[in-house]
Amino acid sequence: AQSVAQPEDQVNVAEGNPLTVKCTYSVSGNPYLFWYVQYPNRGLQFLLKYITGDNLVKGSYGFEAEFNKSQTSFHLKKPSALVSDSALYFCAVRDLNTGFQKLVFGTGTRLLVSP
Amino acid sequence: EAGVAQSPRYKIIEKRQSVAFWCNPISGHATLYWYQQILGQGPKLLIQFQNNGVVDDSQLPKDRFSAERLKGVDSTLKIQPAKLEDSAVYLCASSSGTSGSRIDTQYFGPGTRLTVL
Predict the structure, then answer these.
(1) Cβ proximity of B93 and B110 under 8 Å
(2) Which residues contact B57 (CB under 8 A, 6 or more apart)?
(3) How deeply is A60 buried, as exposed, middle or buried, from its count of CB atoms within 10 A (0-12, 13-18, 19+)?
(4) Phi and psi at residue A84, in whole multiples of 5°?
(5) Where does B1-117 have alpha helices with state H?
(6) CA separation (Å) from B98 to A70, B32, B47, B83, B105?
(7) Which of B91, B97, B102 is the closest to A43 by Cβ?
(8) pLDDT at residue B1, rounded to an integer
């Protein structure tokens, strides 16, 4: 079965510093990977996705993610964190086994950016 | 472009009562999804519609949950009777493509927070 793991429940970073939120995946076949962000009392907002091509994917709000096939990772990064980036981040993989569009989500990582 | 709309935003009910949630997807989106997000967990797919047909309801507790999308646009998700463990955020999402499209992005609504007492 397709799955993703987010090993950190929480990541703390100071404003202005680079941030990384980790995600590893387990899939059979080619992975289709996504990052979403969730602010309090809000739904999930799409940040970026990896389908194929360049290993560095650029997304919304200055975020990017690096796909690493050998390490089966898809870490989310931003060169300079903002306090407003504080939120819950979810990594997800498209489950292709059923032939449908189901997303399988990780457990989420809470990012706290301190002033 | 308007996003995915959901109502109500919050609902509190007693166990064994029934409740219904409504979702209006992004205009023109053929695929609609209902996810359940329990506190501290990632969202889990309950049911997926392609137009007005169900394509995946393998994780829907069919003894108490039901969903419909009669005209291929709006959808309702119902729980009857509710249990304590149904307390969660219910997220609706939509995407534009067909089941075969591998680059389809799902766009989520704000969710309905259900508390069962």
Answers:
(1) no
(2) B46, B47, B48, B67
(3) exposed
(4) -70, -10
(5) none
(6) 31, 11, 15, 34, 11
(7) B91
(8) 62
- Interface size A-B, in CB pairs within 8 Å, comes to 68
Q: Please check whether residue A79 is in contact with residue A18, taking contact to mean a CB–CB distance below 8 angstroms.
A: yes
What are the CA-CA distances from residue A2 to residues A5, B11, B47 (Å)?
11, 33, 18
As a whole number of angstroms, the distance between CA B60 and CA B74 comes to 19
The larger pLDDT score, comparing residue A101 to residue B56, is at B56
Chain B CA closest to residue A90: B42
Closest-CA distance, B109 to chain A, in angstroms, reads 5
| Binned average pLDDT, 10 residues per bin, chain A of 115 residues | 92 98 90 93 90 90 95 97 96 77 91 97
Using CA atoms, how far apart are residues A76 and A7, in angstroms rounded to an integer?
13
Mean pLDDT of chain B: 91
Helix (H) or strand (E) holding B18: none
Q: What is the pLDDT of residues B71-114, one digit of tens each?
A: 889 999 999 999 999 999 999 999 987 555 556 889 999 999 99
A106·B99 Cβ contact <8 A? no
Q: Is A99 close to B99, i.e. CB distance below 8 A?
A: yes
